[in-house]
Amino acid sequence: MIELTGVSKSFVLHNQGSAVIPVMAGAELRVAAGDCVALTGASGAGKSTLMRMIYGNYRANAGRIMVGGTDVAKAAPREIIALRREVLGYVSQFLRVVPRVATLEVVAEPLLALGVPEDQARARAAELLARLNIPERLWSLSPTTFSGGEQQRVNIARGFAHDYPALLLDEPTASLDPTNRAVVLGLIEAAKARGAAIIGIFHDAEARAQVCDREEDVSAFTPQAAA
Ligand SMILES: Nc1ncnc2c1ncn2[C@@H]1O[C@H](COP(=O)(O)OP(=O)(O)OP(=O)(O)O)[C@@H](O)[C@H]1O
Fold first, then answer.
1. How would DSSP label each residue in 162-175?
2. Which of 49, 50, 54, 208 to mutate to test the pocket of ligand 1 (most atoms within 8 A of CB)?
3. Which of 9, 10, 11, 171 to mutate to test the pocket of ligand 1 (most atoms within 8 A of CB)?
4. Which ligand 1 atom is at minimum distance from the Cα of 203?
5. What is the pLDDT of residue 40?
6. Pfam families this protein is in (predicted)?
């Protein structure tokens, strides 16, 4: 489902004399449907960079990044937008939303974008918010003023609203209490059971051990190590 071959990335710091910083060379990764792979490696090893390249936020300098039938490394912006709508979900660490949009709408939005009827989309959003213990009195409010953990749960509800065939999870349990952490791990397990291919960054080692089938240490792809 997700397959990376020979992926390299350098950053060019235009505001610092165009210094070139190579951060990744020859990255290889394969994640089958139903598998969860954890990206590991020390801080600065390139976990987030790799995830951002798969999501199409950073452009790879070389290599192939196949997600379903799309090569993200070469795809046009329009193809990446379609991929994100239909195939590839992403739960980032922090919620970024348009101000003044109600929480229920924020969570239902990925389904509405796919053409799911409004009542069905809202019912699914309500089910996820309830499961993630977001009190119903908050559903009509914008999540911008919510606590860190509440925002993270809204973000997770939104990321799991549609049954994406592939999912990227950046620290999905970072600011959660044990009860909600268990709910999120349950959602991840259910996504795997229905055949989602998942890549995650989990600093929570126990969570990683519970839901991930294997670990991929991205330090193996730092340019020095590859040389
Ligand atoms: N936009 C950018 N411009 C320049 N350098 C960047 C950029 N994004 C990441 N880097 C560099 O790439 C390297 C890898 O960073 P990245 O955030 O991917 O590491 P990480 O493994 O996710 O670290 P952490 O566990 O601390 O989040 C770092 O040296 C970082 O400074």
1. S--SEEEEESTTTT
2. 49
3. 11
4. 25
5. 97
6. ABC_tran
Say if ligand 1 is within 6 A of residue 23 CB.
yes
- pLDDT at res. 225: 47
Q: Which CATH number fits domain 3-221: 3.20.20.60, 3.40.50.300, 3.30.420.40, 3.10.20.90?
A: 3.40.50.300
DSSP string, 89-146: EEE-SS----TT--HHHHHHHHHHHTT--HHHHHHHHHHHHHHTT--GGGTTS-GGGS
Per-residue pLDDT at 17: 87
Query: Which residue stretches of the chain have pLDDT < 70?
Result: 225-227
Which residue's structure tokens are 């959602």?
187
